[in-house]
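tool_call predict_complex ligand=zinc ion
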Amino acid sequence: MDTRDRRDTRWEEVTPGVLRRRLPGWDETVGAVAGEDGVLLVDAGPTRAAAEEVAREVRDLLGLPVTRVVLTHAHFDHVLGAGAFPGAELYAAAGLSAHLADGGRAALAEDAVRHGGERGAAEADAAALPGEWREVRGGLTVSLGGARSVVLAALGPAHSPNDLVVLVPGGPSESPVPFVPSVPPVLFCGDLVEESGEPQAGPDAVPERWPAALGRLLALGGERARYVPGHGAVVDAAFVRAQRAALDRLANR
Ligand SMILES: [Zn+2]
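tool_result ok
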């Protein structure tokens, strides 16, 4: 069978083995990084049903199950699908387990309902969220087997109290053709960067710390990285710099 027949056009290949999809509804990104024996998923989508669909698609596209899940931050549209992966290694920024234990589940479900989610599903998905997460302070390198590893970096508080980004380091060109450029790094930014609208500063945002977080993001990815926002199209370093400048003006208004 021609492999193109199986290609899901909803998924975009950012670099080889690194995919992302924008989910319908709230347009949040999920990312998939292929390791040697499993896939690391960046964010879990807004419902377990959506997450189960994502897992099926990822297995179809990459031939591997989801074995690791990283949450970029604890907003319902990125988190409530996480109960679909009870056997996976789970990573989040420090504070998530305590947040969930301290009323966070109910708050996530209410937020989903407020944004048009169905109450029964939202409450069940919130109840099904795993309670124990491997929490990241500063940075953590996670090996995905073989030559592939990712770096998780806690950059919050900024958009949320617990912002975490995922860097997939770049590498040499995989093409035998001379002069094909090397593979750029990929940075999954969560909602620290938004392309499809203005960056959303909700009640749990810390706007005055957001520009500095974007400075650290730019230092991590560098000039060549492809920056994958939480909402919208993949952008470059110049876009992130412009967003940092806009947030800086807002914070100092
Ligand atoms: Zn968010």
